[in-house]
Design goal:
2 copies of one chain form a homodimer. With about 325 residues, chain A is α/β, with parallel strands linked by helices. The first copy, chain A, is built from 14 helices and 10 strands. The interface between A and B is medium-sized, with 19 and 19 residues.
């Protein structure tokens, strides 16, 4: 399978270039504060609302950077990825904005709502069986027949540089801050944040939040090498995927610690955010508040940038119902 | 029952004074746009997010204006109101910020969650039977024993002037715009909007949105006098109350039309806003989008300020579940 990944480690110049490139296509999302959560946590929290981002998720940044960085020649052949989630949606969005073909390989069992959302952005869906072998085989066929550029959900220098624009905006809005906290799945957002902050604010500590039930990054960090789980089960469905070499580079070098939360704690934090902040966030976003409330000693009296990564949930299946 | 209402019609100077007075206690809420809803409606929509206001609702403006405008002497005796909804919450919030007593008369049958929210702001709840006579009797007793100032939910010059600060902020952010659209219940927000816009942007048309099942303001406007229904039933529970003399003054003089939406249309619009804008809004807010989508010819190619009035919903009882 030709994954066509750009394996070079991105630099902060790549983040700067990405920010210029994607500005017309993504929001500079607002930062919300909440007296209630400040009081509850003892910290000063600044919530970066990437749930209000295009496509409802920060991944619009990385996908737009990849898509708008393509040569005219490559752009004509389009882009492709395999993802039934936020990356597929974001790549479809970005390709739609550039007006180039996008193909998303999705298991035929993926929810119709997700397929509809991808199609609504004008992308082409190729269905596979819900197995890794079928996905890889199908994807290889798509790339061979179209010549499409593979944009990996996170292990791609262009994607990491794109995600790095989020921490850059936080720094521009807040000035100095003590801690950045973001969820970790494959590590794209955390890696982009490490890339940016290690360059412009090396004193800012970086923490990641991960579900107890998908704690492969936590165990990787403790072990000193990548540990990948086969099929973790968690409500935070954006956080199931394992680290890969590029994201491991950033996590292993720049992340102070990975903090875990139970399914119950994630759901409770999600409910609290909806109730008090009046915004729709995914479980994968709410895990940040969950680990803050669980580790108050780490955050007390600190200025903390908290990335609420996305808001794409099935409103008809809420976990507290 | 000594309602102690300030019956004078407020002026735009009162709005200006209110804005200065309440600025430290309320948010200047953001205005969100949505390419999706612009495309769907053919209009250019600017959503003023009062769901992100203190206490989760625009009523924090009027309540803060009333509370912070009291003399020291009156402030010591506190404020009182009868409301099991957003006004009770907002008055409790404002009184809590000033550190003065607030009493809210609520039916003993009101949801515990609402009572808890009022108590969390430090207000005192006096329960009554769920009937108008018990409410009035109980309320009169509270006022007699405490000397508290009655702050009516909407038929109060101080409250109307406070709500008028919202349209002022929209105008300051947008400059000229063609239409202002807000929901109508008792008419406090609409009246404040009329007061402000008739002074600073008389060319801006004002439309109100009302549930078909609680269409007393609509029928009042057609009839040329106030019609009050006894106990309308609608999911938009903020919009059940009738117009009163002060709000009728503004509605009858400045509102171009009142547009109706069915319960189903309100619920569908609410779902769409949550899904696409990733924000939590009440049915009473979502009715604005419902009437836009139902009356596209009125809004097409216009710059429309849309007030999303509040976000206080029971997350465990969503109408599409």
């Amino acid at each position: 399978m030709n994954e066509n990944i750009e394996q070079k480690i991105p630099t902060y110049d790549d983040v700067l270039a990405a920010h210029e490139r994607i500005k017309p296509y993504v929001h500079k999302t607002p930062i919300f504060t909440s007296q209630y959560f400040n009081k509850l946590s003892g910290a000063e929290l600044f919530f970066k609302c990437e749930n209000l981002q295009k496509a409802g998720v920060f991944k619009a940044r990385g996908a737009s950077n990849a898509v708008f960085g393509l040569s005219e020649e490559q752009a004509k052949k389009g882009v492709a990825t395999h993802s039934s989630g936020n990356h597929g949606l974001s790549l479809s969005y970005a390709a739609g904005r550039r007006g180039i073909p996008a193909t998303v390989v999705m298991p035929r069992t993926a929810p119709e709502a997700k397929k509809d959302a991808v199609r609504a952005y004008g992308a082409n869906i190729v269905e596979c069986e819900p197995s890794t072998s079928s996905r890889e085989e199908t994807f290889a066929r798509v790339v061979a027949s179209t010549g499409a550029d593979f944009v990996h959900p996170y292990n791609d220098a262009r994607v990491i540089a794109g995600q790095g624009t989020c921490a850059k905006e936080i720094y521009e809005d807040l000035g100095e801050f003590d801690i950045l906290l973001a969820p970790i799945g494959g590590g794209g957002m955390i890696s982009g944040s490490c890339l940016t902050l290690s360059n412009i604010s090396p004193r800012t500590k970086i923490y990641a939040a991960e579900p107890e039930q998908a704690d492969d990054a936590y165990r990787s960090l403790k072990a000193g090498h990548i540990i990948a789980d086969d099929a973790p089960v968690t409500i935070a469905d954006g956080l199931k995927v394992p680290l890969k070499n590029l994201t491991w580079h950033f996590v292993s070098n720049f992340v102070s610690d990975i903090l875990l939360a139970s399914e119950e704690e994630i759901i409770e934090a999600m409910y609290l955010i909806w109730q008090r902040m009046k915004i729709v966030v995914e479980p994968s976003s709410a895990i940040t508040l969950a680990v803050i409330l669980k580790n108050k000693h780490l955050f007390a009296n600190k200025r903390v940038g908290v990335i609420l990564t996305g808001g794409n949930v099935d409103l008809k299946k809420l976990p507290w119902m």
